[in-house]
Amino acid sequence: MSARKSIVVLSGSGVSAESGLPTFRDANGLWRNHDWRELASPEGWRKHPELVLEFYNERRAAAWKAEPNGAHRAIAALEEMHNVVVVTQNVDALHERAGSTRVVHLHGELAYARGTSAKRHRVRLDGNPIALGDLCPDGTQLRPDIVWFGEPVPKLEEGMQHVMAASHLLVVGTSLLVYPAASLAELAPEACEKMVVALELERVPEGFTFRQGKATEQVPEIARKWASG
Ligand code: OAD
85 C-alpha to center of ligand 1: Å? Predict the structure, then answer.
């Protein structure tokens, strides 16, 4: 019997695209039709919280209705034979809903709200909306528990530790254009087997094998290979 591998999956919005959720920078991506400064920044929240809440309420409802796809399921199934950690930039819960048990959300989670005081009190929403006037137990307005541009990434260190200990790293569905998340791909040990799956990529990071194509086609193939070999 072969030893358990330490597999890390670094995922982005492309892994959920075939579940019907939009990416950010592809044609028709969210940031092609919306200004991230208005919707995903502390400045936007101060200026018009109602617009920000509406944007995330819509995204939460869509993410709640979406179903995990074959890529999410293939990643989850790898846990039967190997140690797997998913470090995701995604704010949907499709990895967990496919069965992945160790998921680090670098950019927060749509399924939660948090208070706006330093206590960061979290409230579980699942698919439900946040309204202006909805308060958390410390009396502050609830906001989406999402990491906006210009905000610290509290789970970054945890993600780094996982990548630095990986024997196998699969990067899937991310343009690798948003830092610091993208920098994680550069931290894997030299001996780690590194694969990257995307429809398009501006730059293939050093040491990676690029599998160009859909996540639902490429990921199950890679998972089969890693499950057996
Ligand atoms: P991008 O929109 O920047 O990149 C999506 C990537 O997924 C591209 O490389 C596509 O080629 C690829 N892709 C699209 N459909 C695919 C499919 N069916 N199969 C495989 N690959 C596919 O999205 P992210 O890299 O996720 O942050 O964006 C990173 C961060 O930017 C997000 O977490 C978000 C955004 O601003 C915050 O909101 C804080």
Answer: 19
156 phi and psi, to 5 degrees?
Answer: -60, -45
pLDDT, position 194: 98
Note the pLDDT of residue 1. 47
Residue 16 CB–ligand 1 contact under 6 Å: no
Tens of pLDDT, residues 132-178: 999 998 999 999 999 999 999 999 999 999 999 999 999 999 999 99
**Does the C-beta of 199 come closer than 6 Å to ligand 1?**
yes
* Number of CB atoms found within 10 A of residue 80's CB: 9
What is the C-alpha to C-alpha distance for residues 14 and 19, in angstroms, rounded to an integer?
A: 10
- Residue 144 CB less than 6 A away from ligand 1: no
- What is the number of the ligand 1 atom nearest to the C-alpha of 11? 26
- Residues identified as active-site: 107
